[in-house]
Amino acid sequence: MSAVPNPEPAGTPDPAEDIDPAAAGSAPLDHPLLATITGWLGAIILGEEAAALLRRADAGDVPDVDAPETVLSAGQVWIWRESRIDVGRKSRAGGGRTYRMPVRVRWGGGHLRLDRPGSGDPRAWSARGMGWSLAGHTDLTAPPSGLTQAGDPSLEPLPGAPRETLTRLAETGRAARWEFLLWLQPTVNSALRKAHAGIRGEMGTDTRPAPPLVDQVKLEQLADLMLFGDGETASSADRLIALCCAPDTFLRVDPLRYLTTAVRRDAATVLRRAVGDPHIGRKVRQVARELGTTDVARVVAAYRRRWPEDHLAAERAQQALSVGADPMAAWVRVEG
Question: Pro residues: which segments have biased composition (predicted)?
Answer without folding.
Answer: 1-12
